[in-house]
Amino acid sequence: MCFELKFAGGIVHSDSECEHRRDADLKHTEEFNRVVYGAKKDYFDDVYGDKQIHLELLATHTDYQKRGAGSMLMRWGLQTAEEEGRIVTLIASPGAVGFYAHLRFATIFNLTIQLEGESEKVQAIGMRREKASAPTQELTGSVGSSS
């Protein structure tokens, strides 16, 4: 299993298997990282610096989906941003844009990641949410709930 534990200052721990993933094409991964992290730097880091909380790679294990775990993660991020007076930024997959738009995120940029000469491509959308009042009211449910 490949994993990394990250925090704002860098990686705390990285499993050595991360360097030898067999389930990902290295060229595609490098291009994805180049485009996405370049856009993050240009559109978010250079503009907002430490006045932002950037939510990165939010996902819920399939065993816990539809039970409130993802909403709980979002509530935490939005509440932390509100308490600290920061905006929230993220880069979403196309399928998640509606969820984030419901939470008052606005689209800032659209990315197409594609290797030259290949037809396969991936879309990603940079989004920003200004400071909000009462962010915890926008997400309902709790871990273990059936809603």
Describe the structure using short key phrases.
147 residues; 6 strands; disordered N terminus; two-stranded antiparallel ribbon; 4-stranded mixed β-sheet; Aminopeptidase; alpha+beta
Q: Topology of this protein?
A:
Blueprint: E1 4-7, E2 10-14, H1 26-48, E3 52-55, H2 69-84, E4 87-92, H3 97-102, E5 106-113, E6 122-129
Parallel strand pairs: 3-4
Antiparallel strand pairs: 1-2, 4-6, 5-6
Description:
- This protein is α+β, with helices and mostly antiparallel strands.
- The chain has a single domain (23-137), classed as Aminopeptidase, CATH 3.40.630.
- 31% of the residues lie in helices and 24% in strands.
- The chain has 3 helices and 6 strands.
- The chain has helices spanning 26-48, 69-84, 97-102, and strands at 4-7, 10-14, 52-55, 87-92, 106-113, 122-129.
- α2 links the parallel β3 (52-55) and β4 (87-92).
